[in-house]
Amino acid sequence: MGAAGSFDGIRDGTRMELTARTAPLAVLLFVTALAPPLGAQANDPATGARSVLDGAFTDAQAERGRAAFRRHCAECHTASEFTGWSFLYSWAGRTMGDLFETVRSRMPFDNPGSLTRDTYADVLAYVLHRNGLPSGRTELPSDDAALRAIRIERQPTPER
Q: DSSP label at 5?
């Protein structure tokens, strides 16, 4: 590093400046380059770790979740609030346990934690379904240890 945060390298004949404004971007690019590609983490049978991309819920559970969402959530929320790129981007890299605990401890707004654990799991199965994630042969569990073993990941973007 040179004086005043300058980077001593030259790129395309231009001196690059590392400032308070550009340093976070440089760190983000460096960390991103080291991260494995989306979907690169396989199931780990030894630890039981898996991904939402592996089919973490069933179609029947997502349907129960749709009904539960309408009954307990739709008064204040629309399903579209929990779908799309921004939702998955916000939760990618975390676990279903993180999402489950956040929802359970805050909703319903007027009585957090008042639904059964199975109902919360059903609603989250519906949210995963709405995000286009694949269903599978086993239901999304409602116990903490099993939920913490399920990673939230985004679908890999098709190459163009």
A: G
> Could you write out the DSSP letters of every residue in 81-98?
GG-SHHHHHHHTTSBHHH
Both structure tokens of 104: 């359970």
End-to-end alpha-carbon separation of the chain, Å?
38
Q: How far apart are CA 16 and CA 105, in angstroms?
A: 47
pLDDT band at 158 (very low <50, low <70, confident <90, very high): low
Q: Which two tokens stand for residue 86?
A: 């921004």
Q: Is the pLDDT at 26 greater than 50, yes or no?
A: no
Closest CA to 53 of 145, 128, 130, 105: 128
What is the pLDDT averaged over residues 100-129? 97
Collect all residues with Cβ–Cβ distance below 8 Å to 107 and sequence separation of at least 6. Answer: 72, 73, 115
For residues 61 and 118, the answer to whether their CB atoms sit within 8 Å is no
